Amino acid sequence: MTGQYRHEPADLNEPDLRARAVAAARGDAPFDLLIVGGQVVDMVTGKIRAADIGIVGPLIASVHTPASRSDALETIDASGSFLSPGLIDTHMHIESSMVTPAAYAEAVLPRGVTTIVWDPHEFGNVHGLDGVGWAVEASRSLPLRVIPLAPSCVPSAPGLELAGADFDAAAMTEMLAWPEIGGVAEVMTMRGVIDGDPRATAIVGAGLQSGKLVCGHARGLEGADLNAFMTAGVTSDHELTSGADFLAKLSAGLTIELRGSHDHLLQQFVDIIDRLGFLPQTVTLCTDDVFPDELHFNGGLDDVVRRLVRDGLKPEWALRAATLNAAMRLGRSDLGLIAAGRRADIAIFENLRTFEARQVIANGIVIAEAGAMVGKIAPLDADPLRNSVKIAPLTEDDFRVPASGSRVRLATIDRPRFTQWGEIEADVVDGFVVPPAGTTMIAVTHRHDRAEGKPRVGFLTGWGEWRGAFCTTVSHDSHNLTVFGRNVRDMTLAANAVIAGGGGLAVACDGEIKAVLPLPLSGLVSDAPLTDIAQAFGAIREAMETIVDWQPPYLVFKACFGATLACNIGPHQTDRGIADVVTGQVLETAVLPSPLGEKVPGRADEGGEEQ
Q1: Residue 28, pLDDT above cutoff 80
Q2: Residues 6+ positions from 571 with CB-CB distance below 8 Å
Q3: 174-225 tens-digit pLDDT
Q4: Scanning 487, 500, 602, 606, which has its CA 20 to 30 A from the CA of 273?
């Protein structure tokens, strides 16, 4: 099974196709496919009406009165169901689901998702341009429409961390020249753009010169900062923190990629839309990050639609945000609407509550029935993504923090989200810091072979009482090896289990490995079936429940993957030390040389992202 969209949208204008479709629309030739008996959800009027749909090749040739036509090579009886355009996910990262693009497509297509806008910045941060090139190549043969973007923040905080590559404006210009690339992926270097930093300005400028989308990441921005960010050329945001933030950014004129990865905020967003009394055309939907067990059991963008309707949003509005609004944002007039002359991407839903797809049609071809693909998708050879964790096995001493004297002051990273600087005193025994009560160690080790592969250790507060250790190479966005824990024995065990697996996740407690998920492709992804990855990831979740007492909505398992996101305001541990994007400072060690009582290098206002 292969994709057919490499020349989209120009493929719909092929003269013979148009001639055949026009003849069928007139009634002078049969349709290739006729869908009868269904209720069309009209994304323009918001109404639901009975209509039959005639399709020729990838083109909708006719939307007409029920039972007025029967001439077709194939007929689908959609009685009792609702017909929607295929769903469009406007911002997401396949790598967050820890599966290959082929496996991701097999997971979401049967659920009605026919288009995704993929920011492959995880592959870019690990493999550079070769990683983005692999992502583009892997997308070409999929029946899922993939619009890749050019990662704008590799690394996310230049000078504060080291990734596997460094994308400057020249690299952006090169990627944006690739015909498959749809624009600049989320610009996370907010401060650099606002302050006119030459690197950040040149990266955004490359996007503007290309004439393609420039997508944003505007967490916490308001007032003059938001105006400056938008005036620089950024036109969208998915980093919403509240209903008030949602309304302010709508009013400012940003396209909103309303994401499902922060479920606790969805009710606020629904309430805002309800109070407006209409769905703004600039509201689209996205998943951003979906873990493998969530993808397997709940789905992709269909799950976001379902949860919004659960919280009270009109089904017609939820679908419009996921279809026509998204198509308008992408400049794709062939998508997002069931109408003559549009592309035949159609999801046949059983109802408008559960949104279970009876059948899914992409480019006029039935690709899924009853929740399963009609055929198999051949994955691209993933060997270029292997052997990306370039670290020798670590020892317990690698996780100890050396210090002189008998007592020292430590800089700490307070809170799992909206981080801020803190300080604490600690004892020193045998030349090493004794982790103070109430702290959790975080160690980040460069794994891309561009610097020494030795852990830089920091101390977190507000992360609860850990009874073991967790290691991951999925660590936004530079994806260095990151370990959390209270004791060096378990931290070493977890780290070496991940290193031995070529990347992935591991949980250790009481000197034993409790769960492990190898991710040998880029240290981010596995080529195993989604069912296997979901099961193994579920085992990681269960093991983590035994070593940490989570406190939602901020102290959650997901916070472990974004704790190193150095582009966000506040201190963050990286492979260089404790980094602060506001001051531009990096503390190579948490041990402070200044006398007790002096302030730590910076104090940040609230901000940041829970990844």
Answers
A1: yes
A2: 411, 413, 419, 420, 421, 578, 579, 580, 602, 604
A3: 999 999 999 999 999 998 999 999 999 999 999 999 999 999 999 989 999 9
A4: 606
**Secondary structure (H, E, C), 461-517:** ECCCCCCCEEEECCCCCCCCEEEEECCHHHHHHHHHHHHHCCCEEEEEECCEEEEEE
What digits encode the pLDDT tens for the residues 279-300? 999 999 999 999 999 999 999 9
Return the sign of the alpha-carbon dihedral for residues 587, 589, 593, 594. Answer: positive
Mean pLDDT in residue range 462-487: 97
CA distance 578 to 591: 11
Averaged pLDDT, 495-499: 98
> Which contiguous run of DSSP H or E holds residue 362?
strand 357-362
State the Cα–Cα distance between residues 250 and 234, nearest whole angstrom.
Answer: 14
Confidence of residue 519 (pLDDT cuts 50, 70, 90): very high
Are residues 403 and 449 in contact, defined by beta-carbon separation less than 8 angstroms? Answer: no
Cβ neighbours of 29 (radius 10 Å): 16
Write down the pLDDT at residue 7: 83
Distances (CA, A) of 558 to 244, 375, 400, 491, 549: 24, 34, 26, 19, 13
CA distance 237 to 251: 13
**Whole-model pTM over 0.90:** yes
Q: Are 111 and 144 in contact (CB under 8 A)?
A: no
In the chain, pLDDT over 90 holds for what percent of residues? 93
203 CB-contact burial (10 Å; exposed 0-12 / middle 13-18 / buried 19+): buried
Question: Tokens standing for 342?
Answer: 């549009």
Distances (CA, A) of 448 to 162, 392, 478, 524, 588: 8, 12, 9, 13, 19
Q: Which pLDDT score, from 0 to 100, does residue 610 have?
A: 40
Contact yes or no for 432/398 (Cβ under 8 A):
no
Task: Report the interhelical angle of 198-210 vs 169-176 (nearest 10°).
Answer: 10
Query: Per residue in 383-437, pLDDT tens?
Result: 999 999 999 999 999 999 999 999 999 999 999 988 999 999 999 999 999 999 9
Secondary structure letter of residue 151 according to DSSP: -
Tally: H helices and E strands in the chain: 17, 32
The tokens describing 571, both together, are: 């201190």
The arithmetic mean of pLDDT across residues 56-70, rounded, is: 98
Residue 249 CA to its chain's centroid (Å): 20
Q: Which residues make Cβ contacts (< 8 Å) with residue 495, sequence separation at least 6?
A: 394, 399, 443, 445, 455, 471, 481, 483, 506
Kindly state the tokens that stand for 165. 């590559």
- Other beta carbons within 10 angstroms of residue 463's beta carbon come to 24
